[in-house]
Amino acid sequence: MVSLQTPVCDFGHGAPEFSLPGVDGRVWSLGECRGEKGLLVMFICNHCPYVKAIRDRIVRDARELKSLDVNSVAIMSNDPSEYPEDSFENMQRVAEEFDFPFPYLLDQTQAVAKAYGAVCTPDFFGYNASLELQYRGRLDESRKQAAAADVRRDLFEAMKQVAETAQGPQQQIPSMGCSIKWLDE
Predict the structure, then answer these.
(1) How many CA atoms lie within 13 A of 33 on its CB side?
(2) Taking Cα atoms as reference points, which of 28, 17, 155, 19 lies closest to residue 103?
(3) In order along the chain (185 residues), what is the average pLDDT of each group of 10 residues?
(4) How far apart are CA 108 and CA 17, in angstroms?
(5) Cα 56 vs. chain centroid, distance in angstroms?
(6) What Gene3D superfamilies does the entry give (predicted)?
(7) Cα–Cα distance between 6 and 117 in angstroms, integer?
(8) How far apart are CA 42 and CA 25, in angstroms?
(9) What is the edge-to-edge ordering of all strands in the sheet holding 3-5?
C-alpha cells in the first residue's frame, strides 16, 4: 500500500465531464450530480483504510452540504481484479450499508480519475456553482484512524465557504490516502 498526498489546488480549473454507472442502476453525468451552489467529487474505494476510517464523516458532511445546495458524488476508480473488495457488487453493499446520500459510481476504465488528476483514496475535488475547482484538501486530520470527534472539519468548512462566496480557502492541507490502483497497461 502506497500512501500519497494530493497536489495543491488548481483554483478555477473546470470539472471534467463524465458519464458513469452508479450502484443504483443509473448512469450519472457531471450535470446530473452538480448542486445549485457546488459539487464535491470524491474518489474513494471500499478497501482503503484511510477511506474506511472516515466513511461515516463523508456521509455526515455530504448530508450537511446538501442542505447548503452543494451536491456530492463518489467515484471508485481502482482495479477490482486486483482488489476484489472494490468490486461493483461490494460498492453496492457499502453504499447500502452506509446509506450513501450521493451517487457511488464505477470508473472502470479509469479515464475519469485520470481526467481529474486523482492520485489517492480519498481524493476530494470541491467545485463552485460554475464548476470551477476551489478545494483540493483533506476531510479533516484523520489518517488510517478517525481523528477526534471535535477536530476542525476542513472539507465541510471549505465547501460551506464555496457555497457562500464561490471561493475556496487559500490555505488547504492536502488529503492523504492509498494510491489509486491503476490497471496494468
Answers:
(1) 31
(2) 28
(3) 76 97 98 98 97 97 98 97 95 98 98 97 98 97 92 97 98 94 82
(4) 15
(5) 13
(6) Glutaredoxin
(7) 9
(8) 19
(9) 3-5, 176-179, 120-121
